Amino acid sequence: MISPTADNVVEIPPTHWRAEALAAHQRGEWLEWLFGVDAAAGHDDSAALEVIALYRSETSTRMVRTRVTPSAPLESLADVCPSARWYERELAEMFGVTVVGGDPRRLLLHWLPDDVAATLRRTFPLGKRQTSTWPGAAGARRSKVPGVHPDWQEK
Question: What is the distance of C-alpha 37 from the center of its chain?
Answer without folding.
Answer: 4
